Amino acid sequence: MKKLLIVMSAALMVLAACGQTKSKNEMKTLVAYFSATGTTESVAKTLSQVTGGELYEIKPEVEYTTADLDWRDKNSRSSVEMADKTFRPAMVKDLQDAASYDMVYVGFPIWWYTAPTIINTFLDTYDFSGKTVVLFATSGSSDIEGAVKDFKAAYPAINWKDGKFLNGATPESIKEWVETLK
After folding, report:
1. Which of 50, 53, 66, 139 could be bridged to 31 by S-S, CB 3.0 to 4.6 A?
2. Closest to 88 in 3D by CA, of 63, 120, 55, 133
3. Is-contact 137 112, C-beta < 8 A?
4. Residues 102, 96, 34, 112, Cα dihedral to 10°
């Protein structure tokens, strides 16, 4: 019996060290977002309230202007960035203790059927390998599927959960979605 208790205690210590014994209340959540016009920011704020997660804005070092966002202009900043999938716009790097989060929601507007390349900058800057990451997006017309596919391929060490398109989402619908991720 004593040996069994020692083995069980050792197993519990190993699980605790691996983060496997955290309750829902102990899980640390981050809601990170990039929003050029405020639409994604609004959804991120609601998601942060629903999850109790810390809200973090992914900020470019140089803000986007209206001209930068003109998708009809092939020479606009966003068009040039999106034409080169290896491009990584500089961002403000002020997220403290990124490794401490267990669940990370990452939100963005859909640009050219996927996420803006600044989201790659964010994922390259902060290593979320082994973490659970959930994408959410807003868009005038595109869905999130292209972005989900792109990120799963580019960052295979991340534990990806199904992303969600959240245009027009209410706090109630966001809460229902979050519950399906647990």
Report:
1. 53
2. 120
3. no
4. -70
C-alpha distances in angstroms, 33 versus 71, 72, 122? 21, 24, 10
Rounded CA-CA distance 107/94 in Å is: 17
Amino acid letter, 168: G
Q: How far is CA 136 from the centre of its chain?
A: 7
- Give me the DSSP letters along 140-173: SS--SHHHHHHHHHH-TTSEEEEEEE-TT--HHH
Q: Rounded to two decimals, what is the model's pTM?
A: 0.84
pLDDT in tens, 132-164: 999 999 988 788 999 999 999 999 999 999 899
Asked whether 102 and 131 are in contact (CB, 8 A), the reply is yes
Instruction: Give me 27's structure tokens.
Output: 């899980």
Backbone torsion region of residue 59, taken as left when φ is above 0, otherwise alpha when ψ lies between -120 and 50, otherwise beta: beta
Cβ-Cβ contacts under 8 Å for 67 (sequence gap 6 or more): 73, 76, 77
Tokens for 13? 């210590």
Confidence of residue 6 (pLDDT cuts 50, 70, 90): very low
Residue 179's closest CA among 158, 159, 157, 164?
A: 164
